[in-house]
Design brief:
about 100 residues
């Protein structure tokens, strides 16, 4: 019975080795196919960030500054702004983002 296990051992080793190589190769091919998709998503995300910084961020800052002026006139509203961290600072400081390099 021991001889049977020893004779199957090299065959089992080769089968495992081949299956491991096929699995690694398949994963490598999959990752190569994903690279262009990820690059396209990065380009699209950069476009969205640029649009936000140029078009939407000034509107957001105007809205928050309007809320801050309202809170100065109506002190009852200050706890609401404090709850969301909108009492002071710029957008980058409130959210923790690095400021844009211009």
């Amino acid at each position: 019975m021991n001889n049977d296990n020893r004779s199957e051992s090299p065959l089992l080793t080769y089968v495992l080795l081949v299956s491991l190589l096929l699995s690694c190769g398949s994963f490598g091919v999959f990752m190569l196919q994903q690279a262009p998709i990820l690059n396209a998503q990065v380009v699209q995300d950069r476009r969205v960030i640029t649009e936000f910084r140029t078009a939407l961020e000034p509107r957001y800052d105007w809205f928050v500054s309007s809320l801050q002026v309202y809170a100065q006139r109506n002190p009852d509203f200050k706890p609401v702004l404090a709850k969301y961290g909108l009492l002071t600072g710029t957008l980058e400081q409130r959210v923790g983002l690095p400021s844009p390099s211009k």
